[in-house]
């Protein structure tokens, strides 16, 4: 558990890095959003409820990577932006809003992390992050899941 001082330092770090990320990536985010809007024929920002710190839900922002009306159909554009994690650039806004951190466990969809019981809920004691050890270890998550009989 982080001390109050450590939590303040972590939050200041998150604000600083997210502001830098937004300044550096605002034009690429805007261009990717426009391109996604054109290619997918709907607004290029994907939003979804995710489970955050203490099990509270928040809306995550991503660049849309799936085709209109095709729930599991990732476009070639989507494959590209997912491969290079460009779809996650809008999440700097989630960090700035205090819903996520730069480093922390990946935010889970409703129905998994929020259903944890007892000691397993410890993961919900911290804010989800843009990056984590799991993000680095499973950078090829899409390929791994495609090989599974039941990817859920």
Any key phrases for this structure?
41% helix; 3-stranded antiparallel sheet; single chain; alpha+beta; 152 residues; two-stranded parallel sheet
Task: Set out the fold topology.
Elements (H helix, E strand, L loop, with lengths): L3 H37 L4 E7 L5 E7 L12 H8 L7 H6 L4 E3 L4 E2 L19 E3 L1 H5 L3 H6 L6
Parallel strand pairs: 3-5
Antiparallel strand pairs: 1-2, 1-4
What can you see in these coordinates?
- By secondary structure, the protein is of the alpha+beta class.
- It has helices spanning 4-40, 76-83, 91-96, 133-137, 141-146, and strands at residues 45-51, 57-63, 101-103, 108-109, 129-131.
- It is built from five helices and five strands.
- It has one domain (4-146).
- The strands form two sheets. A three-stranded antiparallel β-sheet has the order 2-1-4. A two-stranded parallel ribbon has the order 3-5.
- The protein is 41% helix and 14% strand.
- The model has no long low-confidence stretch (mean pLDDT 90).
């Amino acid at each position: 558990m982080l001390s109050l001082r450590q939590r303040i330092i972590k939050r200041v770090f998150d604000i600083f890095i997210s502001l830098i990320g937004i300044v550096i990536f605002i034009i690429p985010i805007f261009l990717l959003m426009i391109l996604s809007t054109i290619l997918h024929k709907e607004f290029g920002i994907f939003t979804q409820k995710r489970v955050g710190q203490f099990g509270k839900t928040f809306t995550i922002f991503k660049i849309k990577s799936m085709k209109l009306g095709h729930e599991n159909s990732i476009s070639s554009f989507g494959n590209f932006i997912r491969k290079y994690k460009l779809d996650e650039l809008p999440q700097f806004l989630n960090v700035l809003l205090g819903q996520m951190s730069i480093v922390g466990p990946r935010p889970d969809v409703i129905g998994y992390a929020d259903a944890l019981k007892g000691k397993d809920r410890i993961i919900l004691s911290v804010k989800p992050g843009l990056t984590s050890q799991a993000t680095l270890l499973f950078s090829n998550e899409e390929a791994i899941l495609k090989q599974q009989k039941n990817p859920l």
